[in-house]
Amino acid sequence: MKYHQISSALFVKNRRKFTAEMKPNSVAVFNSNDIYPISADSTLPFAQHRDIFYLSGVDQEESILLLFPDAPYDNQKEILFLKETNDHIAVWEGEKLSKERAFQVSGIRTVYWLQDFHKILNEMMTYADTMYINTNEHYRAMVETETREARFVKWWKERYPAHNVAKSNPILQRIRSVKESEEIDLIQKACDITEKGFRRLLSFVKPNVTEYEIEAELAHEFIRNRSKGFAYTPIIASGNNANVLHYIENNQQCRAGDLILLDVAAEYANYSSDMTRTIPVSGKFSDRQKAVYNAVLRVKNEATNMLIPGTLLKQYHIEVGKVMTSELLGLGLIDKADVQNENPEWPAYKKYFMHGTSHHMGLDTHDYGLLHEPMKANMVFTVEPGIYIPAEGFGIRLEDNVVIQEKGDPFNLMRNIPIEVDEIESLMNL
Question: What is 363-403 written as a DSSP string?
C-alpha cells in the first residue's frame, strides 16, 4: 500500500463497537471484495470492501473476518482468514500478509489460512444461534454483479438453514457514520492531498488546455503524495459541460472566458475526500460569473452552519432550499410569481439547483449513515450547493467537507483550499 500503516488500535475500537451491538451467541462474517476481470487475463485494480477494512485494516483480496464475541474460547472471538502466501506468490504478485504481519495490522491474534475457513466456521456454527450476514443496504446502491459477500451469503443459507439470520448493515450504518479521531485525521490527509492538486491546477490552467490534461495534473499530484488517485471518477467540466451533473468524459478543450467545474478529490488509505471548485479558464471571472459564484458561496456558508447535532437531513435540505431561493431571486433567475406558484414537491429553486446539498462521507464518498436519524458530533458531511444555467453556458458548484462538532460551528477539513474569488484569481495570475 502507498499509505502509511494505520495503528491497529483504530480497528480494535471499531470491532468493539460492532460486537457490542451483536445479539447474544452470534457470529458475524465479512469478506474481501473480488478482483474483477476485464477480459483475457486483465483485471481491474483491487479495491477492498470497506466493511472488512473498517473492522480489520486488512487491505488484501481473499480475506475473511469472523467475529464471535460469545465464543467458548478466547482464541475464537476474533479470527482472520488469509490467502496463504509463499515464495512463488511473492515473486509474481508481491508479498502478502503473513500471520504476524496480519496481527500488526489488525490487532487480531488468531489467524488461519483460507483453506481452514469452512472447517472452523462449521465448529463456530455448532456453538452459535445467529449469523450476521453483510448485505449492501446503502440508499444509493444498485448492485448488478454478484459479489464475494453475496456468494458467501447464498452458500451459508443453504449450508446452515436452521440458524437465525441478522443483518450487519444497520450496525455498520450507525457506527461507521460517527468517525473516530484517527479516521478524521485520515480524511484530513486526503483533503490535504486534494489541496495540493488544486493549487497545482491554478497555475496550470490556461485557455485551450484540455480537460484530460487537467485530470492528468491532478493524478500526478495525488499519487506523488501517497494516494492511489481519485476518490471517485473525476468531473472536469468546462463551459456548458458543467450543467451535466455527472459529466465524466473530460475530453473537451477549455475556451477563454469559460468556467471549469472541478469535482475532483483524492483518497488516502481508502478514506475519501470530496471537493468541488469552479475556476475561470482565463484567470478572471466576468461580473455575471462572479455574482453567481458568490451567491453559491453564500449558500454554502449558510448551509455549513446548519450542520449541528440533532439536525435531520430532510429538514436541513428544506432550509437550504429557502436560502437558495433568496439567492436566485437576487440573481433574477426566478421571480416572486415562480415561488408563489411552485410545486411543493419540486420547488422553483430546483430549476437551477436540482441535487441535494450534503451527504455523509468517509471510507465511501457517499458514506454510511441513516438519513432518517439526527446528525451527531464527529459525522463528516459534504456541503455542495450549485447553480446551473445552461442558457448562459456555465454552472457553478462549490463543495467542502466538514466535521460536525459537539458545540460550535462545523470544522472545515478544506479550510485551506482556496475558494474566495479574489484568492483564486490572484493565484491563477501569479
Answer: SSSS----TTSPP-TT-EEEE--EEEEGGGTEEEE-BEEEE
